[in-house]
Write a structure and sequence with these properties.
This protein is mainly beta. The protein is built from seven helices and 39 strands.
């Protein structure tokens, strides 16, 4: 494979400079803004300035407000899943999200692990490595950046990659009041009221949103309320301070998982065990952060963010009730150096991040909706901290060299509040676990092929520590001291560019992501006075070989023409992900099952997305997207597959400026126009425990329609 890849890149190295000459010189001076897939500006420490992605030596996907406008914008899945190499699912209509990047993140059936998510430079992923997105108001996002694969030299732990969320920014020199209302199938209703203003001294936005849906299955309703403030304040020519505050209340009812027989017979069914306990997830949260950007002199600058968030989570489910409270706080800082001597440009960062999560986790018996005795009462203190650095050198011959790494520390401390004289037979679950410091390096080399294309090679390492639930054995009351973090190293080569007067944008990446010390659950049979229990062990490796392609071509981009914009796009992902030396446990006895050379669960071999964006001079627009997902194994033994599906979504609308003070956007759309059978979330397991073992959380079997109106008054 690497030989074929090298030949391909050598071909591109020879051909792309010639193709770049096809861009007419006047294309750089035209007043028409060419909206292409990969010339979206990327901001971050890795570049130190706004820049396109041509000199970024790794695969980075970007979504903007235009991408969110293709659908309701109320959830992120329909937008993020159009990105090659990325899969996002949800356990409920608008909650329980899990993000899988390049096949990593599929080792959990609940909230994602191995993916670092940040919102306006504030970590959403807590110190335990768990990411909960139920309380994020996706309708207020202005941009999303996805770094695929380890990005430890800037973000510390996390093998899968990084998802950076950025909220909307006010229009410069403008004050607006925005009112948006939308509704749709299954009782969907959403309201947003937003006030935004920006002048030479500040940019401020406040948004309140209310959202509800009755759901398409019994006990699948959703209710959400959001309040959000973010502002940028220009203190001086050298100093800008940004602030963010958000409150959210989220309620997502749980209807339970289905078997393949139920979903593929298109039966509308809810699990009676969930119904009798009134199963749901209720989260109330507060999030705040302040970022200071300070330019020390012409070469040095600093960005420092202090953040905190807290939440309560109450979840009655089929077999009990959990009642959690968590409080997270920390800081993130980086000193940036930039220098341009003419022959060599240097951009470097030295930074650090600290984060601590204090959680109070209680669990109770719950039978037929009647609350029983307490089962668990744990106080968890988890903290992670890292120091990192990354240096980028722009050298002669249009070469760019990037090198860096991070040193990462993780510590857990758990106190069992039920371990007292009133419970003499209770196994004490208290314990401490400090993982050995882990150094994760990254190095890459890139060559610019003129002003419109580049080619690169990148090697990066990452690691993912296990969550506290895997570190402590609840039955034995002991710390799992032998458990190691999962580690990974990714080899990637690729090319990206915008050709033919920037009409054609492309990204192509080939990668090999090797993960070691994969963690699996192991069931230990009862022995003597010890009941059957589940523990976690390092039991194997995983090799992910893949290819990702993104293409976009601007057929028409002329605001004066009848059809002012016509842009087809395609993204394709090929995945050959397999378990290597991978077992059901590390006992290696007669009961051990060998899963080696089986396909990785939850990953389709082929995923194809295609779409077209059409806009007219009169203000009408049409968006169509098509998604094909191959059959997917959901058990390690590969004996059980979710069927392939084809999803067609569309949106039609009209938006226009009405005079000096009003703008309007009227729209109607539908998801699943062809009434296909597909799922929003798959549960994974070693094998199929029985014919009634449920693994599917389905989407509605028929099209879901929506429509709405957004009106803005401009002062």
């Amino acid at each position: 494979m690497l030989q074929r890849t090298g030949a391909f890149l050598l071909y591109m190295l020879m051909v792309l400079p010639a193709m770049a000459q096809l861009n007419p010189k006047e294309g750089k001076d035209t007043a028409v803004h060419l909206q292409t897939l990969n010339t979206v500006q990327v901001t971050g420490w890795s570049t130190g300035k706004k820049d396109n992605q041509l000199d970024v030596a790794q695969s980075v996907g970007v979504l903007t407000a235009e991408d969110f406008h293709r659908n309701t914008g109320l959830s992120l899945e329909n937008s993020l899943n159009l990105m090659p190499g990325v899969s996002m699912g949800a356990r409920t209509s608008f909650g329980g999200q899990r993000i899988i990047i390049r096949g990593y993140g599929n080792n959990t059936n609940f909230n994602g692990q191995g993916v670092q998510v940040l919102l306006n430079n504030m970590p959403v992923t807590d110190a335990t490595g768990t990411t909960i997105l139920d309380d994020i108001d996706f309708s207020t996002l202005g941009k999303v950046e996805v770094i695929k694969g380890p990005a430890s030299s800037l973000y510390g732990s996390g093998i899968a990659g990084v998802v950076n969320l950025f909220t909307l920014k006010p229009q410069p020199g403008q004050t607006r009041i925005v009112e948006e209302n939308s509704g749709g199938s299954f009782g969907l209703y959403r309201n947003n009221t937003r006030i935004e203003t920006a002048n030479e001294h500040s940019a401020v936005l406040f948004n309140y949103g209310h959202q509800e849906e009755e759901g398409w299955r019994t006990n699948s309703a959703s209710r959400k309320d959001y309040a959000q403030f973010n502002g940028d304040f220009y203190v001086s020519d050298k100093n800008t301070v940004s602030a963010f505050f958000a409150y959210a209340h989220s309620m997502e009812q749980l209807a339970g998982e289905m078997t393949d027989s139920i979903i593929y017979h298109r039966i509308v069914w809810s699990d009676p065990a969930y119904l009798v306990n009134g199963s749901k997830t209720v989260i109330e949260s507060f999030r705040a952060g302040v970022t200071d950007n300070y330019r020390i002199d012409d070469h040095f600058s600093n960005q420092t963010t202090l953040f905190t968030n807290s939440y309560t989570l109450n979840q009655p489910f089929a077999h009990g009730l959990t009642d959690n409270q968590a409080f997270t706080f920390g800081g993130r800082t980086g000193f940036v150096y930039a220098s341009d001597t003419g022959n060599v440009t240097v951009h470097g960062i030295i930074g650090a991040q600290f984060q601590k999560t204090i959680a109070f986790n209680k669990s109770y018996n719950l039978t037929n909706g009647v609350l029983g005795g307490i089962k668990g009462d744990l106080q968890n203190a988890s903290q992670g901290y890292s120091v990192f650095t990354e240096w980028k050198f722009s050298l002669p011959s249009q070469l760019v060299l990037t090198a860096g790494g991070s040193l990462n520390f993780t510590e857990y401390a758990i106190t069992d509040m039920l371990a007292n004289t009133a419970n003499p037979t209770h196994a004490n679950q208290s314990g401490d676990k400090s993982f050995s410091p882990v150094f994760t390096p990254r190095v890459s080399v890139l060559r610019l092929l003129g002003e419109h294309a580049s080619i690169y090679a990148d090697v990066s390492a990452g690691y993912t520590p296990p969550p506290t639930s895997q570190v402590i054995n609840a039955v034995l009351g002991t710390a799992n001291t032998a458990l190691k973090p999962e580690s990974g190293i990714q080899y990637e080569i690729g090319t990206k560019g915008d050709l033919f007067a920037s009409r054609l944008s492309y990204q192509l990446a080939l990668f090999d992501l090797d993960v070691h010390n994969k963690i699996v659950s192991e069931q230990v049979p009862a022995s003597g006075n010890t009941p059957t229990y589940t523990t976690y062990v390092n039991a194997g490796e995983q090799q992910n070989l893949g290819l990702e392609l993104a293409l976009s071509y601007m057929l028409v981009n002329d605001p004066r023409a009848t059809v002012s914009l016509l842009r087809p796009f395609v993204t394709y992902t090929w995945s050959d992900f397999k378990y290597k030396d991978f077992y059901s446990d590390n006992n290696h006895n007669a009961a051990t099952v060998n899963y080696s050379n089986h396909h990785v669960t939850g990953v389709a071999p082929n995923v194809l997305n295609a779409g077209i964006d059409l806009q007219t001079h009169a203000g009408f627009y049409l968006y169509l997207t098509y998604r094909h997902v191959d059959a997917v194994p959901y058990t390690f033994d590969n004996l059980n597959y979710a069927r392939a599906f084809n999803l067609l979504n569309g949106k039609l609308g009209y938006r226009s400026q009405l005079g000096r003070h009003f703008s309007v956007d009227l729209y109607a759309g539908a998801d699943n126009l062809t009434n296909c059978t597909y799922y929003s979330f798959l549960f994974f397991s070693g094998n199929l425990a029985g014919t009634t073992d449920p693994h599917f959380l389905p989407m509605p079997y028929t099209a879901a329609f929506y429509g709405g109106a957004k009106l803005a008054y401009i002062f």
